[in-house]
Design brief:
The structure is a single chain. The protein is globular. It has one domain: Alpha-Beta Complex (Spore Coat Polysaccharide Biosynthesis Protein SpsA, Chain A). It has seven helices and seven strands; from the N terminus they run E-H-E-H-E-H-E-H-E-E-H-E-H-H. With about 220 residues, the chain is α/β, with parallel strands linked by helices. The N and C termini lie far apart (about 45 Å). About 35% of the residues lie in helices and about 15% in strands. Strands 3-2-1-4-6-5-7 form a seven-stranded mixed sheet, with helices on both faces.
């Protein structure tokens, strides 16, 4: 029997303007291709939560009116942040909004996970029953999911080795914290190797962005 979800949880998805997304793929994808990829990943994330976790509310924070309009069409709450102070500042604002709306838990999920898995999200939610802070680590030591109770339990330290930073901050505050290594959640698409791995796992979905093995240039297939 499937376990009930946490009550009063809001999923927060930060998403920058597609024109500024996926800069680390500039060597192998054109600007138009990178923008299309970012939008594809973002909309897939919205669809996943809308249909697999319909009882959970979603808030999108972005510096793009286009992105917020798309999020609204998928039933998400929207928060505009001009983005000049970076991701951590945008998430601070989102956390303030989530708290003001009365949510008891907050789950931050990036918009560029190649393959969101329902069971992995359930694993996060179950872990939050025993921990104030739950971290799903990225392959490079970053944070690909952060579930906090209450939403403002810790400060946000997204950046290099952020999983360790979040864990240390929780420890300093005396909070119960657990870090998880979840195969699908560990893969966000930032660099060409990530895109190649995603293409191997889901060839039909990512074939548009397939990178030639030698030239590392986009193959139009």
């Amino acid at each position: 029997m499937e376990q009930p979800l946490l009550k009063k949880l809001c999923v927060v998805i930060p998403m920058k303007s597609p024109s500024r997304a996926k800069q680390r793929l500039a060597s192998c994808l054109s600007d138009a291709s990178r923008e299309k990829l970012a939008l594809n990943l973002f909309e897939s994330t919205l669809v996943f939560f809308r249909y697999e976790f319909a009882s959970l509310d979603v808030l999108v924070v972005s510096d793009s009116r286009e992105i917020l309009a798309l999020a609204q069409r998928h039933g998400a709450l929207c928060l505009f942040d001009e983005g000049s102070l970076g991701l951590n500042s945008a998430l601070d604002r989102a956390c303030q909004r989530v708290t003001s709306l009365g949510y008891a838990h907050q789950l931050i999920i990036p918009s560029d996970i190649a393959w969101l898995d329902k069971q992995e999200i359930h694993t996060l939610l179950m872990a939050a029953r025993e921990s104030d802070v739950v971290i799903a680590e990225a392959k490079d030591g970053g944070t690909n999911a952060l579930l906090t109770t209450p939403p403002s339990a810790i400060a946000f330290h997204y950046g290099v080795h952020s999983a360790l930073s979040h864990h240390q901050h929780a420890a300093r505050r005396g909070l119960r914290c657990c870090s998880l290594q979840l195969p699908h959640l560990s893969l966000d698409i930032d660099q060409s190797d990530d895109l190649e791995q995603a293409t191997q796992q889901q060839p039909n979905r990512f074939k548009t962005w397939r990178i030639a093995p030698q030239s590392k240039e986009r193959s139009y297939v």
